[in-house]
Queue: 4 jobs
Job 1
Amino acid sequence: MYNDNPTIKDLPKVVDEAKQGEVFGSEFAPVQPGTKQFYIESYGCQMNFSDSEIVASILGEAGYGPTRDMEAADLILVNTCSIREKAEETVRKRLRVFDKVKQRKPGTMIGVLGCMAERLKSKFLEEEKLVDIVVGPDAYRDLPSLVAGAEEGEKGVNVFLSREETYADISPVRLQSNGVTAFISIMRGCDNMCSFCVVPFTRGRERSRSAFSIVAEATDLFDKGFREVTLLGQNVDSYKWENPESGEVVNFAQLLTMTAAVDPDLRIRFSTSHPKDITDDVLYAMRDHENVCKYIHLPVQSGNTRVLELMNRTYTREWYIEKVNRIYEIMPDCAISSDIITGFCTETEEEHQETLSMVEFARYSMSYMFFYSERPGTPAARKFEDDIPLAVKKRRLTEVIELQTNISRELNAAEVGKTFRVLIEGDSKKSDQDWKGRTTQNRMVIFPKVGQHQPGDYALVTITDSTSATLFGYEVQPGSTRTNG
Ligand code: SAH
Ligand code: SF4
Ligand code: F3S
């Protein structure tokens, strides 16, 4: 989920997932009278949304309850993203709105969290006069004392990046939850140096969380009625955790197997996979466990070897093609999705054509597509000129979006007539007479409520119709596959 790029609005599938500035509210945690309240908005990737749940837990311990009403809040927080310029512009605009609240209600504290806080550090306090605290992704444990300091009129900054922090012992407060699907952060940071990317600078070195704490969190979620967990990291395939007691090392394939064993009715997803690191062992673990979803987000970024080299992705076009072939060979029914950047420094029309042909070849079920946005301080910004005119970047992006939409439409149309086990997530957005759920391949399915079901149930659905973003169908033997409740 990357939610700053207006062009992705063209793709309905992406919009489904791209919630702008999600607000966490108080519905799930009633606030005691007299309790101080915080309001939080989150931008950027799922890691940030997951971090906001950790922040809520830390603030809860310090006596703060969540509110959906920013006017009522004592503390307004914004968890920020730096991935593209647009993401930062969005945050600056929101800060103008928070400023107005503060002017009406002096004493309201404003805190900036996340990647933009990390990137700009104390400069933020100079640029944004009404901000009270600036806290980077590894310093959230320090929030209560920074807030206490700010209450005394002392502005605070903590952007220390840790080599160890994984927040493994903190039980996230599931704030914006549908009660069925949840995210579990399994690692933090990134050690890859993709030349366009700001993440290694804002999130620091890669470190993996204890496998036991991950399995315990998955088990706890299952016991609470959740039926799907997504294991999160910038590069999950390089997950590596050494048990300090036995010295045994757990890799990602083993972690998948461990979480799959929690319960056959708990679906396991994961994101993101770096093509260079996804191993056959991971593919076999997926194949061998029915409840590990047959869906891989495998960002290609570009279809051209020279551009991939400039991007420092460390694979070639041919190598990526081999990887895709291997996935389809081991799991013929697996869906693959991608991230794509158009108009990277020096990209020619021919090289852009190779990105288009890659989309065609890989048959992505969907893609997150962006035009290149130079980020200060990244290797690309230091070494290469951002020389592709904006209009060209955008035109190339439109071409990729159109092609991807057509492929998504074709792939979805090919599902008509097939029957899938769908995990019901809740009411469809358009009608409370319909359920919405997903197939193992992560395709959204809408079907009429006929049987006795509740969110978290599995239903067998035969597909009758489709668009580029959604499948429609009816339930076979309504109610017969109820597995919980
Ligand atoms: N860790 C993930 C991606 C994290 S960032 C991975 O390696 O795949 C999500 C996506 O944002 C990237 O895959 C890339 O497509 C896009 N992105 C990152 N930096 C960008 C930039 N400077 N301009 C445009 N898109 C960018
Ligand atoms: Fe960025 Fe590359 Fe790390 Fe992904 S793998 S977060 S694109 S540096
Ligand atoms: Fe954005 Fe930071 Fe995620 S830059 S994409 S919020 S890791």
Job 2
Amino acid sequence: MLRFKVVDEAFNRKALAVEIPAERPESYFGKYVFDRKKMVEYLPTEAYEALTNAIDKKQSLPREVADAVADGMKRWAIDNGARHYTHWFHPLTDGTAEKHDAFVVLDGQGGVMEEFSGKLLVQQEPDASSFPNGGIRNTFEARGYSAWDISSPAFIMGHTLCIPTIFISYTGESLDYKTPLLRAINAVDKAATRVARYFSPEVKQVVSYLGWEQEYFLVDEALYSARPDLMLTGRTLMGHESAKNQQLEDHYFGAIPSRVEAFMLDLEIECHKLGIPAKTRHNEVAPNQFELAPIFEETNLANDHNLLLMGLMSEVARRHNFRVLLHEKPFSGINGSGKHNNWSLGTDTGRMLFAPGKTADDNLQFLTFIANVMAAVHKHDALLKASIMSATNAHRLGGNEAPPAIISIFMGSRLSRVLDNIESLAESDLENLASKEGMKVGLTQIPEILLDNTDRNRTSPFAFTGNRFEFRAVGSSANCASAMIALNAAVAAQLQEFASRVDERVSSGETLKGAILTEIKQLIREHRCIVFDGNGYSDQWKAEAARRGLDCETCAPKIFDAYLKPESIEMFALTGVFSKVELQARNEVKWEMYTKKIQIEARVLGDLAINHVIPVATRYQSVLLDNLCKIKSLFPADKCRKISAEDMAAIERISEHIAIIRAEVTAMINARKAANRISDEREKALAYHDTVLPAMQIIRDKIDELELDVDDEMWPLPKYRELLFIR
Ligand code: ADP
Ligand code: MG
């Protein structure tokens, strides 16, 4: 009866009162961030100037000021209740890593005092042997060390001062997400600045921006605790669809339940204190599914904030007796969760490069950047898919509610037409684009065209949305860095190539605008086939995409291969984002993670099937058999056959299901054993994909059918209809 006890408990909960600060957000926003205001207050002038100068110029912090910065940071942290400090980094696992040290040191007189030195601030050697490294440290016999990323501000979480750091091996290979992300951001800055200067020579820097939209599910803690699969794997490995789920479309943008609203408010206040500019919240499509989106920020900072948010969500949820599910597909049969990555580039002079401008010249620049993104996405479509792929996101991709497993770009029919029209633009028209010719091509009207271009194709994995691209295929539990590394690097390489071609033309006597126009036309001709505005879920598209030569691979372990294709290795080397050794090591980690995730799920499913479901099904079967015997003893044979026909069928069904489940669990265990003997990580991951996953699916289907036959009072696990509707 555990199930009914927890369901009762869950359904009787009321919304908790949230402690709302008396002040408005502007007075507590960034309270726990060591931002410039705090730097002014806590650092000596020279240290402040040296630090902000290093941040602005993307240089490293001079050693001689590190002690002063560390001391100021410590005093600020202590004033705000901190007792410990930690280097906070993003290893190749889900989430972040931290090892806390207290500020205390012995004072030599039997007591302690609190100290923090520049050396400890700038660099540390966490014992890194247990983080995934894909063999890098074994090969190079090197330890890992973490080094302060001064471009991300330090912050206080709980009672700990957190210093955002990169994590690399002593031989310089990255062992984390942040290092290559910073490299990719620098690469795109360099390349995009070069191109933006064709239009505005005063541009000094191009910033990559990210605005993520975090989708998630909430489940009551009591129900969660009664589901070992949710606790151990983050998703339900079984559970028949609820009669009502999302078919009435009544959840999306619906009224937020008061318990959930209390949680959201609490979370937003915590976000704001940590400088995360949380802004938008709403119900998502599936029951119990919600979204939080902040105001977009520079990509590295935005990603730190997303990782912080994911940690914060779990913590705040527990205060409200909820558990947050960040898994991409916690429930089958209803929508999964993504994390749309809204991405754009902007200059230090305030121009957003994917936004149309006021003049025709501005719009030539706009089309230059759009065409280069098209080319980058087309050249690296398989890689971009690999960048968002994982064992968990694999459940979402290719389903009928999520981005398809083929990367294409949605441009909207009107922008597509502008791109096509540019073919007819002659070099002689370039002198005055605002004239008749510019009008003909549509260059002057682009802003108006886009303004009323409101069609939003939800089936596209990568959509142009007026002033940015929305990479929708990213999974809800992912570190956005993975997608942002691939995208920024691919676009950087493309822009570099574009600029070299343009420069070559100019040096052989062509006019700059003429050269740009010729190259844009060429890009559009070559890469037009990545644009697809139709229904990305349809079978016609799958056939059409294959015909266009787009990558249609659906098997996750094979999708990872894209990182090791010669063109990817070359692109990452050219941009300085990854060396070949790093790529190989990272792929080892990807395959290993894939295997481990499925291994854990398979173990949990086996346990639930054999120890929870089958015993209950057998007990219910006995009840039916007992009843049948009694009927037989009381009624004449012909009557008995009539009234017990349905019972007989049910008994048979249950027996069959039990037999199949037992056989498949054995088959699944054997498949696992065979796979575990394979030493090559890629082959092992493939074996898990090809042999373990299919057995899991059969087991699940049979258990879900049993759920319909077995007495509701006996069923051991909370059902979908109970898990999915918070009251
Ligand atoms: P949607 O209608 O797509 O659900 P949301 O309002 O939920 O939109 O989220 C849009 C996200 O895009 C926000 O995080 C917002 O800050 C971000 N965004 C808006 N403009 C840009 C831009 N130019 N570059 C990057 N992100 C942006
Ligand atoms: Mg949204």
Job 3
Amino acid sequence: MFINKLNQLYKPERVLYYLEAGPEEIEAFYKGEIPETFRKLAGTFGTYDYPGVFYVDSLEKEVIGIEYRPEDDRIDYPTELKSILLDGAFYYSIEIENDNRIDLPFIRELFAKLARDDDAHRQYSDLAISDAPRVIGVFTHISKFRILYECRLEADRASDVIRDDAEKLDRELLYRMAFHDPITGHYNWNHLVPFLEMPMDYGIRDYAFAHFDIKEFRIINEVYGHIAANKVLSNVVRAMNEADFVYSSARCHNDNFAMMLRDMPEQEMIAKLEEFFEGLSHLEEDPNYKIYFRCGVVPMQRAVFSANRVADAGKLAQKLGTTPNRTDIVMYTDKMNDDILWSNYIKAYLDTAVQNDEFLVYLQPKFDIKEEKIKGAEALIRWNYKKRVMLPPYRFIPFFEKDGSIGKIDDIVLDKVCHALADWKREGRPLYPVSVNLSRSRLYDPGLIDHLVGIIDSYGVDHGLIDFELTESASYDNKEQMLLVLNRLREKGFRISMDDFGTGYSSLSLLTEMPLDTLKIDKSFVDKVGTGQDLEKDLVVMRYIISLAKELGFVCLAEGAEQSSQVEQLRSLGCDVIQGYYYSRPIPMEEYVEKYL
Ligand code: C2E
Ligand code: MG
Ligand code: MG
């Protein structure tokens, strides 16, 4: 049985999970029996209300649904709303009392009637400005059922229409609910939409858009309680109302807010917002607690698209604000959007690419600079994307790192490297160690070591021929875990290199704890030596890094030397090994075999 998911448009904070069920299960449900799978689901998902029969896929499919409210739902929503305006669309619902159990044929008949143009539609037809009302679902309860249908509105006219409608139908509540937030009494998102879509109507010529939320708002809620948390929300509203650079603002949902701001140069904007958030950073209940925000800003040139797209752009930038214990203000760039599209695309395409064998391993030799002899190589992945264009790692590695699929890439590389080493051994060629990059996100995989050993042993490759490179920054997340994994790998006879040394900010004492064979000094340091105008300071730094590495017993490797003058300088400073374009770029495996083995 498949579990499907449907975002309930009329209650966006909740998700309807449904199981496709056969006629017997549906009949049984009406008799009051809830299927076993269903109960189990309830256990897995947490709170649930409204088990019901739901119709999806244009009313074709009858399913049993369970409404799931995410566990971190922080603030209670008024669930009893008869209709809510969302993104310029109404979702009206009609509830029909039913004192008996629901009669299936009756619903079907009623549905068919609604799906055609019937009375209920006509009742609201004046609201359906841009689209005909469309029934989106029927939800049955034991005692009543609800029919939902949607009416789209032109956003800038939404306010008028709703006001008229509210008067006509005598539903002031509806109007208030449609444009106000029940907790702070401030405007909600729907109220802000017309401003964004038709700024000129409000005398606004240039504007920027900001979307922000409160970091760790959950903690405020849980530790200091709902009242304190609601007070924080109200303070935000007051500050937005008082700020002279805010044209209009809204509380969107939970701890999310949006503002339409006066446009100004980027630095000024950041300074203004920092001051704004600083003013909101105190928690009355606890002077030691500091409130931080993350805010995405869409500058005017980018804010000219539709309200929802502006909001998406703002949220995208907002999400990138992840610095702990600090307020982040992130300016939206088009690249962020391109990245998301590209990232989603390649993630979906990854498995096909693997099947098509589009990933290749290039090898870049490492040279001993005293003896001018090859010492080994680093395996670097290349993606022969759709067999049309060769993509360098920065075009895909960071995206796969984020969602965990990087493991697949690293495995392909390790597999190809082991395959090659086994071939070379059989062919009687000299065997030099090959290093592979190990992504730091994988350090938390409890099966990692067995998995790696499994691949290597399946080719019978000597463990001493495999060198795992880990970037220095891997130690930030969890030093203990990193040390544990590295020590176990070392015990199994593998070599370990610290990659990109000098780009992170790890303490030097970490070097004494790490089980290392090689320290790879980052190219950014190497770039500063042998230029002909070397600064004494840079040379001092390089000399000390090299002697530090050597005194701790590591091989010292310099990454990215391109000029002979750099090689000379590094040699005189005592560096052992160089991996850089001066000796060779990364090359296809066949070429490596031809040239070096
Ligand atoms: P890295 O591990 O530090 O690899 C060294 C990078 O420096 C390689 O870039 C290499 O081509 C480049 N390089 C070496 N010598 C020179 C030089 O003299 N001049 C210049 N300008 N560049 C030089 P590449 O292949 O683009 O890889 C970039 C990064 O992508 C790697 O940095 C590594 O972090 C990551 N990467 C590559 N392959 C894999 C992989 O299979 N798995 C994982 N997780 N990451 C990989
Ligand atoms: Mg590397
Ligand atoms: Mg490196």
Job 4
Amino acid sequence: MPDAARGARGWGGIGPQLAARLAKLDIRGPLDLLLHLPLRYEDETRLTPVAQTHDGESTQCELTVRSSEIVARPRRQLVARAADDSGELVLRFLNFYPQLQKQLLPGTRVRVFGEPRRGFFGTEMVHPRLRVVSADEPLPQALTPVYPTTAGLAQSALRKLVDAELRRRPLQDPLPAQLRQRLGLMDLAEAIDILHHPPPGVAPESLEARDHPAWRRVKFDELLAQQVSLRRAYAARRSRRSHRLEPDASLTDRLLGVLGFSLTGAQRRAWREIADDMAGAHPMQRLLQGDVGSGKTVVAALAMLQAAEAGFQSALMAPTEILAEQHHRKIAQWLAALGLEVVWLSGGQKKRQRTQMLARLAAGEASFAVGTHALIEEMVAFPRLGLAVVDEQHRFGVRQRLSLREKGEAGTSPHMLMMSATPIPRTLAMSFYADLDVSVLDELPPGRTPVVTKLVADTRRNEVVGRVRDACLQGRQAYWVCPLIEESEALELQTAVDTHQHLCEALPELSVGLLHGRMRGDEKAETMTAFACGEIDLLVATTVIEVGVDVANASLMVIEHAERFGLAQLHQLRGRVGRGSDDSVCILMYARPLSANGRARLKVIFENRDGFAIAREDLRLRGPGEFVGARQSGLPLLRFADLERDVELIELARDEARRLIADSPAAADALLATWFSGREGLLGA
Ligand code: ADP
Ligand code: MG
């Protein structure tokens, strides 16, 4: 693991072995140690008489040992009896060092911290934390911090390390005094001190809820650091040159003429924003986002045509073969009506065809390319690449996007349009995507009939099969999505094959197709084409159809073991139906018993149609990790700020970041050094 290796060098008097353990906690230097803040606290500032303790509540008691013995049943354990004036407490240790028994001699005074329980043998604590004390030993003045830790690193050791660092030297506040005053922010060193060792009088609830001024300061700085680094990355990319791709409408007008529909207001707005960016002398860095079915593809096609109007090439890259293939099918069909050709590039294609395509791109004969990662491979030359469109941008790593950028003419960068199939909640867009301009398609094309969602227990599978038969015999088409089996791709494949087999037998009057991730690219494409033109009635598929598949006549979808899927996935899948004007139905089959989480997810999908609302719930249930994906590799996710609760701080940080960069660049540097310790290298991509 490179991270551990980096830590293993040791720092500030910490040896390589300890450094490696600390690195697992993302602690790689003294500042990280200071910012390793407690998960919670234990109150050892008070003593509670045994008689006044409550079951299950963490409590500290001071007791005198009466007896201790090792008993063999039901298993070997050390049982001590100890008491204060109010009553007796049984202390039970299942694992213990011989040393412990020696300590617990009758008459010894001990402080124990644990959760008492009243039981058959009286009140007892299992595995309390225990310390021998003298009669007048003072109580600690502050709450005791409990830190997130890792195997091989004891809580007490971590406490010592943090305390040593807290004592070592005062932390320089990175923010100018004037800024702190204006925003009423606590001094950083003081905030950090309070959070490690809350003095008496600090309300525990305000620490718990993280709304104490000390938390506010730390969260603000964290968000500000994120904003500053993203804005700087934005500015750095923005400072490059691009070719101005001025529109002349000669091609885009023709596309609008052959589409057979008119753009929604949201599409027109987004297109205008993109067109303006592309006409500029600096690279566009824009995120186009919108719900499933909001019509992002046509906006991308318009942008590609604008590039061509200015005499430049454009490329659209998608993370999977099937998604790229869908884009190609759609865009090629639109552009064919204009007499234009779209080159297809993928890893799965035949060598000869590929070589031919590459030659045409390199010679500048072809203007449009759609494909997978194959597009960014070394040999692919785009001498006049003016626009790069990246779909499902979060699935690509920073390096991949970087290398796409390098494709254009030396000294210039292509304009970049990122697309996201999954709506991104506003707070997330404001924080993690602060380095992009954002266009939102917040309107669905007219004439869509909302998809009716049904929850059905899988004991009613036969009924569901009957329903599929009826729908298909009426000329509709259906998807049957096989269960997701995260642990084993082989098992998932086998299940898909079995399901296909079973449905073929159960529905002999239908033509049933199968689509899964292990099929060759051309096989997948063939199957999709057969489904798209109605030769296949029912398509049994694994989640390869999750993104982008667009067959308007398909109006029924069955998802098996829906409880295993994530929210975004279910929403994406459901978005595959309801694309035509037929009434559409999505049947979510689930197996009992449902876990609390599985139930919560199904409820969200059942109750919500709006992708943004679902995304907000998803963010709440799972945190930002899944959304952000490969995007932030090299940069930690937010540790303290919460995208839901800290909206106000996010907005504040966004506004202040601009000011700080402009007015106090040195303070901005100091802030980044505090938070990232030089680890933000990949952000600039
Ligand atoms: P997504 O945003 O999910 O990628 P698509 O681009 O696949 O959505 O569009 C979904 C479907 O809606 C496609 O069949 C597309 O041709 C169609 N479509 C797009 N824009 C409009 C519009 N303004 N009016 C009618 N249909 C549209
Ligand atoms: Mg799409």
